[in-house]
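Figure 6 in text form: structure in, sequence out.
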């Protein structure tokens, strides 16, 4: 078994922090469209995305965003703020040092033939980065920007929950259910990496670890551990299994007896966080009926609301999540991994 081991000192653990990245979601989302069979969970969105970009020439992005294996880290620079802006992230991409571009492109193609579109990054890196940023921007606008409020609500919800786990229970509580292929013991975070040829030992040396939830790393995990970058671990957030579904959740008899079927269904549907209209569509109930249930659940402290611009999303409060666990409802988290 090949593993990556991240050796975290006390200083590293104190500097462990969270963020998410729209640029990362765009690059990894594009990768999912190249090999839909590996990302079956996202098929509803993938079909929509493929149709939306069928008239675009995305050759620069296609050249580097390989369906499997290493993707140059400069495509997805770790965010410097917990709530990065997509346009600002593109500017960071454009400022990548040419030597870093050449080194990472060569690394990506060290054991495979390099296409002509990728060679431009070696010959004219500055110009190639401009075309790459344009490709990513077009893909984002056509496929992910319309869904970003929902995605962002899910990612924020996961960050808040895990930050709370870290504050209350330390690193053991944080990493306990991060991913089935991730384990933590005595300061070492071990990442099962059976597809790789060699083991890796990473020493952040006081830089800490960035934890980044991402919808499009399912069903595994991903990392940025290359030279010059903040050590980063991208993992699957809670609620991703229900991100694109319009299917009502499986009922829970005990919960229905406690609060009534309607409110129970709404509570069970809030992973990931959802808007009133999304809940109404999924549960086939009028928006006014959903609003009434949400108002009651909010008054009892089981649900919280969050506003993002003109959008309002509802999510489980810590009390609401605890209630579901107490009633024997296990929220979707550890998804089946391919054999």
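Output sequence:
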């Amino acid at each position: 078994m090949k593993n990556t081991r991240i050796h975290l000192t006390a200083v590293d653990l104190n500097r462990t922090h969270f963020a998410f990245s729209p640029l990362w979601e765009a690059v990894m989302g594009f990768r999912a469209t190249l090999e839909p069979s590996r990302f079956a969970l996202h098929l509803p969105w993938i079909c929509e995305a493929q149709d939306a970009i069928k008239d675009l020439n995305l050759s620069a992005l296609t050249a580097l965003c390989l369906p499997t294996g290493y993707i140059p880290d400069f495509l997805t620079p770790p965010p410097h703020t917990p709530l990065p802006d997509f346009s600002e992230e593109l500017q960071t991409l454009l400022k990548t040092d040419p030597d870093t571009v050449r080194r990472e492109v060569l690394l990506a193609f060290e054991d495979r033939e390099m296409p002509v579109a990728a060679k431009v990054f070696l010959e004219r890196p500055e110009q190639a980065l401009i075309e790459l940023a344009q490709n990513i921007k077009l893909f984002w606008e056509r496929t992910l920007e319309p869904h970003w409020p929902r995605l962002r609500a899910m990612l924020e919800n996961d960050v808040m929950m895990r930050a709370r786990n870290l504050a209350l229970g330390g690193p053991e509580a944080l990493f306990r259910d991060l991913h089935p292929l991730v384990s933590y013991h005595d300061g070492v975070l071990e990442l099962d990496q059976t597809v790789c040829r060699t083991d890796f030992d990473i020493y952040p040396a006081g830089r800490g670890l960035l934890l980044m939830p991402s919808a499009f790393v399912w069903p595994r995990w991903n990392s940025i551990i290359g030279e010059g970058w903040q050590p980063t671990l991208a993992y699957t957030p809670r609620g991703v299994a229900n991100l694109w579904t319009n299917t009502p959740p499986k009922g829970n008899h005990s919960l229905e007896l406690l609060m009534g079927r309607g409110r129970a269904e709404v509570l069970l549907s809030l992973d990931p966080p959802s808007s009133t209209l999304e809940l109404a569509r999924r549960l086939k109930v009028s928006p006014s009926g959903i609003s009434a249930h949400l108002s009651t659940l909010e008054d009892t402290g089981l649900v919280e609301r969050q506003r993002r611009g003109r959008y309002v999303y509802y999510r489980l409060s810590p009390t609401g999540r605890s209630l579901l666990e107490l009633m024997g409802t296990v929220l979707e988290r550890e998804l089946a991994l391919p054999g």
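Caption detail: The first strand starts at residue 3 and ends at 7.
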